[in-house]
Design brief:
The chain has 141 residues and is an alpha+beta fold. It has a single domain, classed as Cytidine Deaminase, domain 2. 30% of the residues lie in helices and 26% in strands. It has four helices and five strands; from the N terminus they run H-E-E-H-E-H-E-E-H. The chain has helices spanning 3-16, 56-66, 95-108, 127-130; strands at residues 26-34, 39-43, 73-82, 113-118, 121-126. It has a five-stranded mixed β-sheet, sandwiched between helices. Strand 1 (26-34) and strand 2 (39-43) form a beta hairpin. The model has no long low-confidence stretch (mean pLDDT 96). The structure holds zinc ion (ZN). Residues 55, 57-58, 93-94, 96-97 line the site of zinc ion.
Length: 141
């Protein structure tokens, strides 16, 4: 496991410990790698009105954006499962988060690697594999 990817995956796992997920007990953490090597994390935040729930990936991207680093994102790691552990089923970004990550990918002109944590390490996917033929800024030109 490449060291910087391992750090990113571990940051996602740690971020999951900050999830607010009292309804599903599905705790998700996301960690964005920025160009300068720094990491921005996010955790899911559920709401009694389920549709208001924020995913960890969305929180992390919004956090990076609010800090002025939206264009600096080069990769993302995601870890999810019951509180305190990585789930047996691979946690990949949901459809909405894939769309949000596509905005970043199009903005930065990078096909973002998405590292999805599991009990034995992580799987690597490219965003273009997770969201083929996605709708993006080019569609609105
Ligand atoms: Zn999501």
């Amino acid at each position: 496991m490449t060291e910087h990817i391992k750090q990113l995956v571990e940051a996602a796992k740690k971020a999951a410990s900050h999830a607010y997920a009292p309804y599903s007990n599905y705790h998700v953490g996301a960690a964005l790698q920025l160009e300068d090597g720094s990491i921005v994390t996010g955790a899911n935040m559920e709401n009694a009105s389920y549709g208001m729930t924020l995913c960890a990936e969305t929180v992390a991207v919004a956090k990076a954006n609010s800090d002025g680093h939206l264009r600096d994102i080069v990769a993302i790691a995601v870890a999810g499962g019951p509180e305190g552990k990585v789930g047996d089923v691979l946690c990949t970004p949901c459809g909405r988060c894939r769309q949000i990550l596509k905005e970043v990918a199009d903005l930065t002109q990078r096909d973002l690697p998405v590292y999805c944590a599991h009990a034995d390490g992580y799987d690597t996917h490219l965003l273009s594999e997770l969201l083929p033929h996605g709708f993006g800024p080019a569609n609105l030109k």
